[in-house]
């Protein structure tokens, strides 16, 4: 058990630029900016986008572009990637992109890095081509990226301009224990994708803390957990709204992805028992309810895990209800 209060917890937003049924991509981006602006006023620490490809319900494929859009429409909140799937890109290109962002928006840009493709294998092949197995070089690519950001790289034959000499916080993202080991060895902050891959969460963060080596970037382990949050005035309303995210995850389980669907009053009309079990297993770290329930559940979560920061992702069909959910969460955690 850890002794932390809710008020000790930093809180942030993960946005996949989720495409809602009946809505345009342009509208999706406008909604993201509005959520980020509200989050800034509500005391959220950071606003991250995740790189995904070839998904009908996710519009954050050009992650760096969206980061610039939201950073340009806000003033103080940190904006970044959760994450950039580094094996999809040459480290030099990412150094230049994020060097550009950090030059435009100083001390506000985060670079979270993942090793997964962020898509299916066929699309990964289309992205990576001959570099299809690039994930095996993830530790080397992270080091290469750090080298490009280093001021000591000024006399190298290949330099990142902009990027060189700019202090951009690098995070290692993970959904298994492999990335935990890398984050620990490099002394970098660690963010876990417990919002869809809960299985190894507790094991991974324990391994990270146990093996952490202090670095110039970080003196003590820092753990951020991404979780699903659906809040409303009452538990009953939140449960109703949460049927949209349950349908979204059912699309992952069945391979039949589609834009975020409206909530339904009875999920039994949508899924069978096997699909329900698979979805609920993926949604193990989800916080659904009214303010009092969320306070109790979130306190129990940090008592068990000792996390430093929680990152909420909220797949809610109605935009105003989604805004309200994030506002209620901020009020619950203050």
UniProtKB/TrEMBL annotation:
Gene3D superfamilies: Luciferase-like domain
Domain of life: Bacteria
Sample GO molecular function, one term: oxidoreductase activity, acting on paired donors, with incorporation or reduction of molecular oxygen
Membrane-spanning residues: none
GO CC terms, sorted: cytosol
A Pfam family assignment: Bac_luciferase
PANTHER family: LUCIFERASE-LIKE MONOOXYGENASE
Family: To bacterial alkanal monooxygenase alpha and beta chains.
Protein name stated in the entry: Luciferase-like monooxygenase
Organism: Mucilaginibacter mallensis
Taxonomy of the source species: Bacteria, Pseudomonadati, Bacteroidota, Sphingobacteriia, Sphingobacteriales
């Amino acid at each position: 058990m850890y002794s932390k209060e809710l008020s000790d917890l930093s809180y942030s937003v993960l946005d996949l630029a989720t495409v809602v049924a009946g809505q345009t991509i342009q509208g999706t981006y406008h909604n993201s900016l509005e959520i980020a602006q509200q989050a800034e006023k509500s005391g959220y620490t950071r606003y991250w986008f995740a790189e995904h490809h070839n998904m009908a319900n996710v519009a954050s494929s050009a992650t760096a572009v969206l980061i610039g859009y939201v950073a340009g429409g806000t003033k103080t909140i940190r904006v970044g990637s959760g994450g950039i799937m580094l094996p999809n890109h040459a480290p030099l290109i990412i150094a230049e992109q994020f060097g550009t962002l950090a030059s435009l928006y100083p001390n506000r840009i985060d670079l979270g890095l993942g090793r997964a493709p962020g898509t299916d294998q066929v699309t990964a092949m289309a992205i990576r081509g001959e570099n299809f197995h690039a994930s095996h070089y993830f530790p080397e690519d992270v080091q290469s990226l750090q080298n490009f950001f280093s001021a000591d790289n000024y006399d190298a034959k290949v330099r990142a301009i902009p990027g060189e000499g700019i202090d951009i916080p690098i995070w290692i993202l993970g959904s298994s224990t492999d990335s935990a080991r890398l984050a620990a060895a490099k002394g970098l902050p660690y963010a876990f994708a417990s919002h869809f891959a809960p299985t190894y969460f507790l094991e991974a963060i324990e391994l990270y803390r146990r093996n952490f080596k202090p670095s110039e970037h970080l003196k003590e382990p820092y753990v951020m957990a991404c979780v699903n949050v659906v809040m409303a005035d009452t538990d009953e309303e939140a449960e109703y709204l949460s049927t949209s995210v349950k349908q979204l995850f059912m699309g992952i389980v069945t391979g039949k992805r589609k834009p975020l669907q409206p909530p339904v009053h009875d999920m039994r009309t949508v899924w069978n028992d096997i699909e329900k079990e698979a979805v609920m297993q993926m949604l193990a770290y989800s916080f659904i309810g009214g303010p009092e329930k969320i306070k109790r559940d979130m306190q129990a979560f940090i008592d068990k895990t000792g996390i430093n920061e929680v990152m909420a992702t909220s797949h809610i069909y109605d935009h105003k209800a989604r805004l309200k959910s994030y506002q209620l969460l901020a009020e619950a955690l203050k």
